C-alpha cells in the first residue's frame, strides 16, 4: 500500500502516520526491517514507530531518562531512513515530532530544537531548521506544521503566533489555513476551564472571524468538488466548529463533507466533554437550517 501511495507526499505522510500508530503496539515493523534491512519503506516506518512510542511515553509521563533513551533510538532510525530515501520528508517530520519532548529551555536536549526563528522576532524560538528541511522537500506539509504547532503548545508559548504565521504564508487550497482554528479552540478551552471564557465574546472578534473565514474561503472552497478525498476529516470538523461558533455562513457544506465522521476534537474542547456528540449534533442542525449561533 505504501508503494502505491506515490501521488503526493501528503498522502504518504498521512498513511504512514496512521499505520505507525497501530504498528507501535507490536513488532511487525521490526520484523520487516530484519527481513529487508535496506528497504526504504521499512526504514521510514521504523522511524515512524519509534517516534510514536517516544512521544506517547512522554505524554504519559514516563521516566525522563527512559523517554530520552527512546528519543535517541528514534533519531538514529530517522538518520537511517534518510540515508535510505533522501527525498522523503517523513524522517524530518519525525524529528519535528520529537521536539515536543524538549520543552525546558533550561535543560535543552538538542540545540536544533531551540533555534532562532527565520523572519521576525515575534515568532518563538523553536525547531526551525527541522521545519526548513521538510519544507525543502515538501513545501507546506500539513503534519510538519502541526508538529511545530504542538511543540509551541507544549511549551506554553507561541502556538497561536506560529499558526497565524503559517497561514499567512500558505498557498490557496492549503490545509494550513485551518491551523489558527486549532489554536483558537485550544485557547478557548483553556479559558473555559478557568471559568473566564465566553463563547459569544471569544468567537465574535474581528481577528477570530477573519481566520475562520480565511480557512473557509482559502482552503475548503478549493476542494468543494471532492472534499472527503482531499481534506482531513479533523480539519473539516475544526472548520465546522469555527463557523458555528463565529456565526459565519457556509457551515452546511462542511457538515455535508464530514458526513458520519464526527471527531471528538474540537467539539469536546468547545462544549461539555461528556456531551461532545450533542455539541456536534446541535451545530449540524443549526447549519442545515441556515441558523448560526450568536
How would you portray this structure in words?
With 294 residues, the chain is mainly alpha-helical. It has helices at residues 9-23, 28-35, 40-59, 64-84, 90-98, 128-137, 142-155, 159-169, 179-194, 199-203, 206-218, 227-230, 233-246, 251-258, 264-267, 276-288. Helix 5 runs antiparallel to helix 6 and helix 7 (142-155) runs antiparallel to helix 8.
Quick summary:
The protein is an all-alpha fold and 294 residues long.
E-strand count:
0
Tally of helical segments: 16
Rg (CA only): 20 Å
**What kind of sheet is the major sheet?**
none
Q: Give the amount of beta strand, in percent.
A: under 5%
Q: Label the overall shape.
A: globular
Looking at how many chains there are and whether they match, the oligomeric state comes to: single chain
Order of helices and strands: HHHHHHHHHHHHHHHH
- Average pLDDT, rounded to a whole number, is 92
Structural class: mainly alpha
Low-pLDDT stretches are none
Q: End-to-end span in angstroms?
A: 46 Å
Percent helix among the residues? 55-70%
Properties at a glance:
single chain; 294 residues; mainly alpha; 16 helices; 63% helix; globular
Mind sketching the topology for me?
Layout: H1 9-23, H2 28-35, H3 40-59, H4 64-84, H5 90-98, H6 128-137, H7 142-155, H8 159-169, H9 179-194, H10 199-203, H11 206-218, H12 227-230, H13 233-246, H14 251-258, H15 264-267, H16 276-288
